[in-house]
Give the backbone structure.
Amino acid sequence: TKGIVDMGIFADVFANSTTKSAESIEFFTRMTRGMGMASDDVAYVMRDAIKNGEHYYKTMTRMKEASDEASYEFGVNRKILSKNFFQLRKDIVNFGHLSEIELMRVTAKATQMGVEIKDLAGIFNKFGTFEDAANSAALLSQTFGMNIDALQLIRAEDPMEIVEMFRNSMLATGRSFEDLNRHEKSLMASHTGMSA
């Protein structure tokens, strides 16, 4: 019913297999509720299943297993993790190259560290070219004494690698983000692509 509607244009493909038995309906309901999936998340899963030439049972099972693994490893609530995962998974330009488990780990680490999910795309966009990365690295060095390798910023496949670089570099100066005044926090946010 609502689940079928949430499938969008893919309801024609998956409606019969979903409604054919009580087990199928229960599977769909448990997966969507267990991962806290919204209507657009369900439509995304259907689209992803079609793209991969598989049934959504397989796609949802893979996502749930990745969610369970990352949730257990990082001690993050699975529903929060899933909500954040789908927010990133739909950004195929920045995160399409990551597998489900890799993206779940990125999401879990960001959630655990208190990094805003919307900031992760901003981090990638901030360091799109070597020139951008070199300028930011130089400004962070000048302003805060942080030592960051611009080439590593460009090579990072995962935004949490960049966040870790910033964090470790800041801690190496003997300060943390909490120690900064509001002007320094604002400056840090503009140089890193993260919000203060």
About this structure: The chain has 13 helices and no strands.
